[in-house]
Write the structure tokens for this entry.
Amino acid sequence: MTEQEVKEIAHRHVPQLINALGIDIQDVQLYYEPIDKENEAVLAATDIHHVETYRHAYITLYYERLRDENQIVGVLIHELLHVKLAPIETFFATWERLIPKKQRVAYTYLYNHALERTVSGLQIGLSEGALKQAPKDGSAA
Ligand SMILES: [Zn+2]
């Protein structure tokens, strides 16, 4: 998709998604890049960075990897769920530092797997509902 197409869809959905997910966040900034040049092989459609204890989230949408509104809403929900689960991520990131190095790799792998499975599972259920309640084209928020 083009940057403009992805922007229009993302801007139409983000305010409603933040509200629907009950996310206590001051600011979500969206960035648009054609692809993730640092991780091209991963084929990622998005990336996220949180700063200031998750009060702000910077989400990058790789528009050349995105194909339609369903996928855009899905990836936005996915990244916003990471924001919602930020306290758990903060807990693990802190706890991880206390684990001896040899065991840390295994715990980190298990944690990342469990987190992504949880986020993906929630994303599937929420995406359908979000698309049904979405504002129609041209009524950008
Ligand atoms: Zn994820």
Notes: The chain has a mean pLDDT of 84.
